[in-house]
Design a protein that fits this description.
The chain is about 80% helix and about 0% strand. The protein is mainly α.
Length: about 260
């Protein structure tokens, strides 16, 4: 065993870390986001008296709705990455297939995947914890719809960036949900966040969904403000995401980057 050979590999990997954005995220960003998430959760649990409502329903409801958003993003972005991994992207776009048809197919695939995973988790939550997500009643429909739309918007942005900057940006497909999670107030109310962070949080449609879910669980009524804000923000973000995707796709066609991706 020679030290100079060990040192050579060590230095090589240190240089790779320095020049690789995904590696830097693994080292610094994701641990910080995890600390923020559970730190805010701890503050919420410490300051709240749960004698008035069901904490199990709050947390399990949050987990189930979060999976809807998570799978909605992953179905679009990872479904696109699978075409790259299988070197099939160029084959698809030399056919008469339109970009809108490709996006529609990824959305439908996302609906199927999300439905399957949602059914499995709902059954497990009921069997293991006697929690019935349908206790949210009619409000469950707008909650899920808003999370799906927001997930599609985030997924379109992720694949547009991957198209433009290549597979080195694929960390977005896997990590973007963890970036959103501390700010979207999944397991705790927005009021527990620092004042500056609250403005970021309230700009996310998902935040208003989770705030609405907590209101329904604790009072049995839904805030119309949360619902309207979620739909309004979603319309704006989905429109911007589609425009951004079309712009990036046109640019990579002009520069011939599609072949490089394949």
């Amino acid at each position: 065993m020679k030290w100079h050979r060990i040192k050579a590999i060590l230095i090589r990997n240190l240089y790779l870390n320095k020049r690789s954005f995904p590696r830097m995220l693994d080292i610094f960003f994701w641990p910080i986001m995890t600390m923020f998430l559970w730190g805010f959760m701890s503050l919420y649990l410490e300051k709240t008296n749960f004698s008035g409502f069901n904490i199990v329903a709050l947390l399990l409801g949050a987990v189930l709705l979060w999976e809807v958003l998570n799978e909605s993003i992953h179905a679009v972005s990872i479904g696109f990455l699978e075409e790259i991994w299988e070197k099939n992207l160029l084959n698809i776009f030399v056919t008469p297939l339109k970009v809108s048809e490709f996006l529609a197919s990824t959305v439908l695939l996302g609906l199927v995947r999300t439905a399957i995973i949602g059914i499995i988790m709902t059954i497990l939550a009921f069997i293991a914890y006697s929690f019935n997500i349908f206790s949210l009643g009619f409000y469950l429909i707008p909650f899920i719809l808003n999370l799906l739309i927001f997930g599609w918007a985030i997924g379109f942005v992720a694949i547009a960036i991957i198209l433009r900057y290549g597979t080195s940006a694929q960390v977005l497909a896997f990590g973007i949900t963890f970036l959103l999670q501390p700010f979207t107030a999944v397991f705790y109310p927005v009021s527990i966040l620092p004042k500056v962070v609250q403005y970021i949080s309230l700009a996310l449609p998902s935040t208003h969904v989770f705030e609405g879910m907590r209101t329904v669980v604790s009072t049995g009524h839904l805030s119309t403000f949360n619902l309207l804000m979620a739909f309004g923000l979603n319309i704006a973000y989905l429109t911007l995401a589609i425009l951004f995707f079309h712009k990036m796709f046109s640019r990579i066609k002009e520069k011939g980057l599609l072949l490089k991706l394949n």
